[in-house]
Amino acid sequence: MDHSGLALPRSVVLALWLQEVGAGSAPVRRLLEAVQGDDEPHAVRASGAAVELGSTLSELVAAWASGPRAVAAVLPAPGDPSGVPSVVSSAATHCGECVLVHTDQGAWAAVPEVEAFGSVYEQGHLVTWDVQPVPDWRTAFAGQVGSLSESETELRIALTQATEALASLDVARWRPDAADAIAALRTGVDPGWLLPDGVDGRRVRVLGSAARLRAIVDLATADDGGAVNLWQADQRSTALREVDRAARRAMSAATQQQPARP
Fold first, then answer.
1. For a 10 Å CB count at each end of the chain, is N or C smaller?
2. 43 has which bridge partners?
3. Is residue 92 a contact partner of residue 109, using CB atoms and an 8 Å limit?
4. What is the DSSP secondary-structure string of 202-243?
5. What is the β-pairing status of strands 98-103 and 123-133?
6. Smallest Cα–Cα separation from 169: which of 246, 221, 243, 244?
7. How many CA atoms, within 13 angstroms, populate the side-chain half-sphere of residue 206?
8. C-alpha to C-alpha distance for 181 and 162, rounded to whole angstroms
9. What mean pLDDT value characterizes the chain?
């Protein structure tokens, strides 16, 4: 579980586990624990699939884990599709994430539709993965998202941009609560993610840096705070939007892996 507030998108967690899980019920149980977390059991809605993918997340994983596969997650935003196939671009952009899978039986995109229920104090989530067949996405993904090493460079630049933007806009003055939270995020606290053993340290490091940057952006853009005019608000938004873009692409790059037999 995430003990720091640095939650990974469901699509990122699912992509990482799909690369490692093979046959057998024990690995699938660990995947379900990591992906579903405190959610209700995830459902699946497969549209136009030529093969049987099931109606639950465990059945979907079993269908995809039976042979070699390529998997990646994409985290699009308005104006930045980030490698999402056009057939699911609108839905994926709306929810901000998508899993891409390629096996010897075809290629798919899975978009998690999330419905919250309960109160703000005890909130639960119903998740349905909408799975659709798509053209082979691997070349487009590599070209638009880039490599892990490129992402690390972008993250370093983004951290500098974020620091400069927040300092110039004097976040500590207009939102001391956000400034304290941002300082805490920079400490590199262990988020306690449930990740498969096959995810190497470099990928975990990139995911951690990207998650912290996205959390910082969320805190800094939660309201217009002490921005005394629209120009200041726009300057802050523009600067931090680029930071978020670099963080999203770094998360995506950290999920990509060549097909491998379990």
1. N
2. 56, 128
3. yes
4. HHHHHHHHHHHHHHHHHHHTSS-TT--SHHHHHHHHHHHHHH
5. unpaired
6. 221
7. 25
8. 14
9. 83
φ, ψ at 68 (rounded to 5°): -65, 150
Query: What whole-number distance in Å separates Cα of residue 54 and Cα of residue 68?
Result: 19
Higher pLDDT pick, 77 / 5: 77
Contact call for residues 9 and 214 (beta carbons, < 8 A):
no
- Cα gap 145→126, rounded to integer Å: 29
pLDDT winner (highest mean) among 17-26, 200-209, 213-222? 200-209
Helices and strands per DSSP (H, E), number in the chain: 10, 6
Interior angle at CA 256, CA 112 and CA 161, nearest 5: 85
Decide: helix, strand or coil at residue 131.
strand
Higher-pLDDT residue of 41, 238: 41
Angle between helices 148-168 and 201-220 (to 10 degrees): 30
State pTM to two decimals.
0.87
Any long-range contacts for 174-181 (C-beta under 8 Å, 24+ apart)? 174/225, 174/226, 174/227, 175/220, 175/222, 175/223, 175/225, 175/226, 178/219, 178/220, 178/222, 178/225, 181/219
3-184-172-230 Cα dihedral, nearest 10 degrees: -50
Q: How many CB atoms lie within 10 A of CB 127?
A: 19
- Residue where the block lists tokens 């976040």: 171
